[in-house]
Model the fold of this input.
Amino acid sequence: MRSHTTTLASNGTRIGFGALALRPGGSGVQTYARELLNALAPKLGAAGLRAVVQSDARAELPRQVTPVERPVCDGAQRVAWGLVPLRDVDLFHALDVDLPLAQRGPTVSTFHDLSVFDVPWAFGRGRAAGERRLLRRAMRRADVLVAVSEFTADRLRAHCGREAHVTPLAPAPWAVPPGAAEVAEVRTRFGLPERFVLQVGTVEPRKDVALVAAACRRLDVPFVLAGSGSTGPGKPAGAHGLGYVATTDLPALYAAATAVTYASTYEGFGLPPLEAMACGGAVVASAVGGLPQAARDGAVLVTEHSEDAWVRGLREVLLDRDTRHALRSRAVVTAATSTWDRTAELTLDAYRHAGLRI
Done:
């Protein structure tokens, strides 16, 4: 961490963003980059805003932010481009710990999770080692750290002894309760049963869809998967995979489900359950990582990662109509208290701590 003694004036201030993780569509980190920039841009007024993006993602930026284009790439190439400094900015904010070498001025780095340290078994050995190096460097070099949850801030404190500004995330703008006609159309188009449990997201060990599938078999309710890998060999026995589902269909899909599950073993925040709540989904999620902070009282939180615990967590939501309806109503109200405007305000506090007068 460097020392900066000059306080920057807001008039003419130039702010750069490292947004190589921003992709057309996408979720999670992509949603964070897109919606944070949309919320920050009007607040920064006269500031000159520039964002380093891959060339096919320039349309994802708000009009106030000038793209600094890099080639479309991933893996080691993306890491290399992320190390290239952005000249002529007064503050640089790495939205996904892509902190450039020799970047001039104060730097801010956002940490979404520390999963490559905490659950390395969920990644390939090479990827985990590479990402650990990037994260360690950002922990050491960034002037101000930002964490998306209290959980991630706690993990940063444990790893590097530094405090982080916590800026909780919010649902994407598409995450709103759908109309009855939309729900009926999606139910018909996908051939969904009257009652079913839904989990949306990539099928990977950390999401443990097999655990939910086992609980659904015991409760005799269909289990539906949507997302990458949901029709592949990793799909658990008895599950019905929908494959890729367009974002525009997600609100109706969440609302159509009798219960929406998220049986992750580790999450830095947990944006998908919050978005499902915003759509009126009856969410049952693991009480791990940042999920309790994200869901609060708008979801049923399962505190034990076992089949019996998931059967108990799902049973009342599936079988008791009044419980399910009350949960749906509470979910929408709870999710509405999380806004990107609030995320942006907390981010501006981090910039002020770095020395920017805004």
User: Anything to note?
Assistant: The radius of gyration is 21 Å. Residues 1 and 143 are 5 Å apart (CA to CA). The first strand starts at residue 14 and ends at 18. Confidence is low (pLDDT under 50) at residues 3-10.
